[in-house]
Amino acid sequence: MPAPAERTSPTADTSPAEPPSTASPTERASRADRVADAALALLAARGMRGLTHRAVDEAAGLPQGSTSNVARTRQALLELAVRRLADREGRVLALHEMPDPRTGGLDALVDGLALATHRALTGNRGLTLARYELALEATRRPELRAPFDAAGARFRDQLGALVTAMGSPEPQRHVLSLVAWADGLMFSCVAGTFHTRIPELDEVRAGLRELLEGMLGGGKPVV
Question: Is the whole model's pTM more than 0.85, yes or no?
Answer without folding.
Answer: no
